[in-house]
Amino acid sequence: MAFMPTRGGRGPSTPIIFVPTLNDLVLSGALVAGVASTGTILNATTGSTITSTVPGLTVNSAARTYSYNGAGSAGSVQGLVETLAGATFSPRNNVVTIVSASIPAFTSNPSISPTSGDQNTTFTAIDGAMSNGGSVLSRRWLLNGTSIGSGTTIVPGAQGSLVLENTGTGNVVATSTAVTVAAATPAPAATISFAAPTATVTEGDTGTKTVSNTVNVARNGVTGPLTINLSYGGTVRARQRRHHSSKQRSARWPKRSGDSQDRGSARLRVARRRHFQRRERSVPANDKPPGGNAEQAAARIMLEFPPNIVPNGAIASIVDRGGVQRGASALRVDRLGNHYRIAMTLPPLDDEDGARVVVSRLIRAKRKGLRVPYPLLSVDQSGCGTGVVVDGAGQTGGSIRVRGLPPYAIVREGFWFSIESSSGQHYLHNVGTDAGAGIDGRATLSVDDTMLRRAFADGARVHFVRPMIEGLIDGSEQDWELAVDHNTRIEFTIEEVA
Questions:
Q1: Helices (H), ranges, 204-339
Q2: What percent of the chain is modeled with pLDDT above 70?
Q3: pLDDT (tens digit, 9 = 90+) per residue, 12-59?
Q4: DSSP codes of every residue in 26-62
């Protein structure tokens, strides 16, 4: 409070009291969340005291300055207080505004160079770019989702999907487009060529003669010559080649009765045996039909119906080779050999040609066997694709690894599929549980319905879109109805042979 004299200054008068008013305080700079700053406090009243309860904001009341450490989040908060005894609005609580900083972001994703290669290729990281002052803080190489390194280059060492991951300011993450890493191509076998020069000698020459021979070894496109010096010593003599007449041959090797015919028959038997041994070896050892050889497999050609013949009813069943032993308690005994059987009915065939062909093939299928598509009804299995194959030879047990599925495809529980062996025989299976493929199209399917009934070769085809069941026509006889309305009604049952 202050006292002021009268305007004329003559004699005593009533004093005029001056009361100061506190105004809004203003900071010289903006407070940005996450950014430290300092500045001056403006609009402060002389003699006042300034205090702060704003998180991260400290003040020097005497110097009228502030310091901010970046704490707090964006928004408005009270806590900058100015106090002056007797002043209007004292104490005055001022609002302080904290603004958000511009968030760093990736303006371009990381990439990999080159964009293709095999597991022995050196791939280089090209980091992404960030805006608003951001920078790349770390990188990771991911092969099939597993971290394999963090350097600027990487050699995967295995096939799969390679991705480069960047982590930038503010824990912002960006990834590159996946690069497919192929398996390494085996190095070509070395080839050797031998160039042998001709040494010219004359009969009667004696002593030592040296001949230079060059051996060329080619590997990986590089040829390395190797020179070998061979020395020949001694005296050169000509050797006369004898030619015997038929009479002389007869004299030297007397002909025995039946000898030529016996030797010829023996040679023929040996040739035949070797021929069939070679045919037996031509079928992969892990994919031979049980109870038969390659010749028998080739002779067994399964019959199929014309494409327009589709059953209008079917009853499928599983043939269980296991059983239950009963005593004080029941014990389930599992045995190998479970397989499927299906009874089918065909709609009345009013097409004389079609009925004739079906009956003919059913008759012959009693001996040769029959292959028909398993009825999927309204179940759509086309999402599994048509390029699925067995992934690895020699698999046994209740599951099988496959490849060739579309990336991230789902094989649902209850889907039917058949595996085609190298001899062309189909084995029907039912998927036991949902299975998801990775980006590489690989998955493991449950086949504990019948277990694997043979060890298939790597690359054996797996049919989802049109699974097949094949086997023998069940029963000792086969009937078909010959109706006066020329509609032929046919029923039959197929049981898998393995």
A1: 246-252, 259-281, 294-299
A2: 70
A3: 566 667 788 888 888 888 888 888 889 999 889 999 999 999 988 999
A4: EESS-EETT--EEEEEESPPTT-EEEE-STTEEEETT
| pLDDT above 60: residue 400 | yes
pLDDT at 31: 85
Which DSSP string corresponds to 342-353?
EEEEEEEE--HH
Please report which confidence band the pLDDT of residue 348 belongs to, taking 50, 70 and 90 as the band edges.
confident
- Rounded to 5°, the CA angle 416-421-426 comes to 40
Q: Tokens representing 431?
A: 């998927």
- Strand 31-32, strand 92-99: pairing: parallel
Give the Cα separation of 407 and 298 in Å (integer): 36
Sheet of 65-68, strand order: 26-27, 37-42, 65-68, 57-60
CB 194 within 8 A of CB 213: yes
- Per-residue pLDDT for 180 more than 60? yes
Cβ atoms of 475 and 491 closer than 8 Å: no
- Predicted pLDDT of residue 434: 94
Cis, peptide link before residue 114, omega less than 30° from 0: yes
Closest CA to 466 of 376, 348, 395: 376
With a CB cutoff of 8 Å and minimum separation 6, the contacts of 378 are none
Closest CA to 197 of 230, 233, 223, 235: 230
pLDDT for the residue numbered 164: 94
Summary count for the chain: helices (H), strands (E): 4, 41
**CB-based contact 181:117 (threshold 8 Å):** yes
Q: Which residues pair with 16 in a beta bridge?
A: 4
Give percent helix, percent strand, percent coil of the chain, each to the nearest 5. 10, 40, 50
- 8 Å CB contact between 128 and 122: no
Residues 152 and 179 sit within 8 Å (Cβ to Cβ)? no
Q: Which of 155, 147, 96 is nearest to 124 (CA)?
A: 155
Q: What is the pLDDT of residues 294-303, one digit of tens each?
A: 334 434 567 8
Q: CA 138, CA 372: separation in Å to the nearest integer?
A: 58
- Residues contacting 16, CB < 8 A, separation 6+: 3, 4
Which has the minimum average pLDDT: 1-10, 89-98, 190-199?
1-10
335 versus 165: the higher-pLDDT residue is: 165
**Which is it for strands 37-42 and 153-154: parallel, antiparallel or unpaired?**
unpaired
Q: Look at residues 233, 120, 271 and name the one whose alpha carbon lies nearest to residue 183.
A: 120
Q: Are the CB atoms for 173 and 165 separated by under 8 Å?
A: yes
Q: Which domains does the chain have, with CATH numbers?
A: 2-99 (2.60.40), 106-182 (2.60.40.10), 313-495 (2.40.30.290)
As a whole number of angstroms, the distance between CA 347 and CA 356 comes to 14
Q: Does the N-terminal peptide bond of residue 375 adopt cis geometry, omega within 30 degrees of 0? A: no
